[in-house]
Specification:
By secondary structure, the protein is mainly α. It has helices at 5-16, 20-41, 45-62, 73-92, 112-116, 120-128, 132-143, 148-155, 159-194. Helix 1 (5-16) crosses helix 2. The longest helix has 36 residues, at 159-194.
Amino acid sequence: MYLTRKQAEELVNGCIKNDRLAQGALYKLFHADMLKVCYNYLPNRELAKEAFNLGFLKVFKSIQNFEFEKGDLGGWIRKIMIFTSIDLLRKELKFNTLEIIEKIENEIIISPTILEKLFFEDILQKIKQLPQATQLVFNLSVIDGFSHKEISEKLNISEGTSRWHLAEAKSKLRFLLENSNNLIGKLEERRQLVR
């Protein structure tokens, strides 16, 4: 979603002044996208909605700290939603603090032919099947582009543990997606037989 600098400044200044119209406009503008961000990080809709509401509360309380020179308004709000979701998820799950000494050098590659046959929503559903800690690290690394160092600092885990969770996520996703591909192949075979 794109806002001109002038539009963003008007919204931010209105929110700083506690203008309900500006707050409502900001909320409506980012509602759908930011709710999706929370859904990506949390295992159920209730927690995602709670994180979303807490996140917007933080946005309105700290909007005076937003600096246009450091990035766009949507990116700033997205980070708040991600960190709020993580904080809420932390209360829900315990991380395995297993230290991984070896670096993971062999990346798991998912065949493009598998991905071509799946819709984006199917892939998101497969990501949701990962264990919560593994899913969280995968989302932070692959979807939102955080480094292992940033992930380890935010989640209070070692970089090795972050790498392990990412490798585990890729391995499990590969398995889940390959099984989906086998299912798609069987459905296509049945369609051919029916014709």
